[in-house]
Amino acid sequence: MSDLAAGAMLFVISHEIIPETHRRGHENWATGGFTIGLLTMLSLDILLG
Q1: What is d(CA 49, CA 42) in angstroms, rounded to the nearest whole number?
Q2: Cα separation of 41 and 29, whole Å?
């Protein structure tokens, strides 16, 4: 259940708090890029300690 809450928070942050990323109709690309960047950052943090 916490995974669902975390995903919902990422969606809200990307769509509502950072509206500059959603110019010119690229909402899905901006949200996907935000999510991929966050996952990459977290993976590197875990792998590199």
Answers
A1: 10
A2: 18
Question: Does the predicted TM-score (pTM) go above 0.85?
Answer: no
Read off the tokens for 22: 């959603």
Number of domains in the chain: 1
Neighbour count for residue 14 (Cβ, 10 Å): 20
Other C-beta atoms within 10 Å of 37: how many?
10
Q: What is the largest CA-CA distance in the chain?
A: 38
What's the domain range around 40?
Answer: 2-48
**Amino acid 46: pLDDT:** 92
